[in-house]
């Protein structure tokens, strides 16, 4: 049996990451002040292009979306490493009182994507400075549309994995504001859930609220669908291979004395395996159709957005990330997660085609006992943790084992 080489501690790499921290913070705050949503992020793209200018990278932009790809070639042959930073924000009204809080009404960076971009730019600086150590090639992927729109899929369709030679390995970091600052957490196998979203429209007949027998009220039918979906999730999905079905929005009617003709439900289905995903989606269709039919209503199920598959870390790639992180930061700051989380990621599209991984970077603010989670309008991060992410990105490209 051949033993794997253990990575060496590189104190200089972490010191260099701290040296470029002012640049990383400045980029992060610029992006945070002006969040953009979805696949079209022209202002964010401009910040990225400006930050990369002068580094000597081979830079290109997307055709279908505002992506940026920057390539650095090493001084000798070796593997090609793909590193990603997603760029889009969320439709939230920020309530953090930060001096650099969002200046865009109804938009906020509440999932750390501003930090993801800034850390990848910091890593670019480190890699350029250490190009004499680099074997192979590094492809830096700045991606729009993670929260909505499947930006990773769009970049794949544009030839991300073919234009720069074969991609041998891939790595991404995701901020985790509820994990201690500077800690790294990951696992082999399933890391995050799939995500499928639907709008269910139940159609009956409108009428007067005092005479429901002369109408066909879709509201109680929609309510019955909500409870029936929960029964389906707990009685038809395996308890040790679970799924979550959530109705996040119900809308119907215009007045208390009017029975509406339609009721809408927005539903998300999340699972940690493709087999349970198929089972849950089949069950959803059966339950919705059956309940509506039992009451004489019509029903339509429309997919919403791009469905994200399960995010599955390659076992070897995850072990490599853990080993490198332990070498850089010490084993006390690296956690192998016992189970996946039910959030979803379009990094899953990349991991379907490349042996790679994702790791969470803890960024809990100091002195805060109950930090706000991702997707909260009060979410903040501990900015010094970004130096950890910069160093880890660079190490994942520099180390050949």
Description:
This protein has two domains: 11-192 and 309-398, Zn peptidases (Aminopeptidase, 3-Layer(aba) Sandwich); 196-303, Alpha-Beta Plaits, CATH 3.30.70.360. The protein is built from ten helices and 17 strands. The protein has helices spanning 11-19, 21-33, 42-52, 113-129, 151-157, 218-236, 274-294, 315-329, 347-351, 386-398, and strands at residues 58-61, 68-73, 76-86, 135-143, 169-176, 184-186, 189-193, 196-203, 207-208, 243-252, 258-259, 262-271, 298-303, 311-313, 334-336, 341-344, 356-362. An eight-stranded mixed β-sheet has the order 1-2-4-3-5-17-6-15, sandwiched between helices. It has a four-stranded antiparallel β-sheet with strand order 10-12-8-13, covered by helices on one side. Strands 14-7-16 form a three-stranded mixed β-sheet. Helix 2 packs antiparallel against helix 4 (113-129), helix 4 (113-129) crosses helix 10 (386-398) and helix 6 (218-236) runs antiparallel to helix 7 (274-294).
Topology of this structure?
Blueprint: H1 11-19, H2 21-33, H3 42-52, E1 58-61, E2 68-73, E3 76-86, H4 113-129, E4 135-143, H5 151-157, E5 169-176, E6 184-186, E7 189-193, E8 196-203, E9 207-208, H6 218-236, E10 243-252, E11 258-259, E12 262-271, H7 274-294, E13 298-303, E14 311-313, H8 315-329, E15 334-336, E16 341-344, H9 347-351, E17 356-362, H10 386-398
Parallel strand pairs: 3-4, 3-5, 5-17, 6-15, 7-16
Antiparallel strand pairs: 1-2, 2-4, 6-17, 7-14, 8-12, 8-13, 9-11, 10-12
Helix pairs in contact: 1-10, 2-4, 4-10, 6-7, 8-10
């Amino acid at each position: 049996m051949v033993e794997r080489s253990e990575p060496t501690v590189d104190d200089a790499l972490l010191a260099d990451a701290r040296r470029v921290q002012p640049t990383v913070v400045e980029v992060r705050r610029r992006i945070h002040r002006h969040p953009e949503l979805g696949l079209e992020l022209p202002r964010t793209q401009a910040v990225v292009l400006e930050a990369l200018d002068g580094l000597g990278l081979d830079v290109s932009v997307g055709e279908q979306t505002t992506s940026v790809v920057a390539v650095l070639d090493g001084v000798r042959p070796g593997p090609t490493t793909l590193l990603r930073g997603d760029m889009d924000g969320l439709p939230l009204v920020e309530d953090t009182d930060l001096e650099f809080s969002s200046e865009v009404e109804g938009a906020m960076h509440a999932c750390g994507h501003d930090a993801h971009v800034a850390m990848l730019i910091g890593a670019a600086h480190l890699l350029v400075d250490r190009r004499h150590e680099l074997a192979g090639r590094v492809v830096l992927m700045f991606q729009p549309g993670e929260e909505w729109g499947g930006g990773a899929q769009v970049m794949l369709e544009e030839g991300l994995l073919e234009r720069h030679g074969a991609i041998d390995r891939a790595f991404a970091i995701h901020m985790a504001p509820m994990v201690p600052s500077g800690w790294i957490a990951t696992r082999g196998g399933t890391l995050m859930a799939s995500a499928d979203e639907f709008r269910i429209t139940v159609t009956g007949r409108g009428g007067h609220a005092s005479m429901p027998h002369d109408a066909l009220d879709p509201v109680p039918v929609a309510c019955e669908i909500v409870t029936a979906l929960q029964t389906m999730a707990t009685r038809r999905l395996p308890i040790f291979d679970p799924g979550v079905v959530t109705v996040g929005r119900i809308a119907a009617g215009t007045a208390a004395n009017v029975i509406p003709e339609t009721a809408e439900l927005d539903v998300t289905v999340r699972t940690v395996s493709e087999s349970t995903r198929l089972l849950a989606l089949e069950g959803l269709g059966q339950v919705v159709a059956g309940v509506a039919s039992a009451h004489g209503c019509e029903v339509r199920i429309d997919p919403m957005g791009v469905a994200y598959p399960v995010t599955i870390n390659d076992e070897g790639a995850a072990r490599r990330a853990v080993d490198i992180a332990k070498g850089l930061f010490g084993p006390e700051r690296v956690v192998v997660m016992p189970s996946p989380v039910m959030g979803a990621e379009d990094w899953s599209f990349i991991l379907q085609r490349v042996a790679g991984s994702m790791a969470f970077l803890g960024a809990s603010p100091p002195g805060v006992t109950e930090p706000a989670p991702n997707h909260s309008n009060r979410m903040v991060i501990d900015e010094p943790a970004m130096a950890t992410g910069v160093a880890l990105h660079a190490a994942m490209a520099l180390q050949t084992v």
